[in-house]
Amino acid sequence: MKLFIYMAAAMVLIRALMIIEYYRDKTIDLELQKKLYRKCAGAVMDYLNKNATASFSEIKDFISGLSTSVFLVQQKLGVDKPEAFTETVISNLLKQGYISESVDNSVKLYSLK
What we know:
alpha+beta; 18% strand
């Protein structure tokens, strides 16, 4: 009788872990994208803290090498298209009011507000 109870408890535990894994697999891509965006935005803010201004190409070169992963998951996400991703990060930081944009000799420069 005890063996039956232990087997039933093990089956319930295994099923619960399978359900958790199923939902985690469904949301892992979105979680990776959010984490990569936050990492890149923080890196841009840190870069602008150290340097007074930065051009689009400097930020693009800096962001292109970044990647991220989630705890207990082997899947990694990196910046595949640095130009498009940099444009997204910069436009969102501009909308949020963290950085400002100026033009110097037809080159857009970004700095902290």
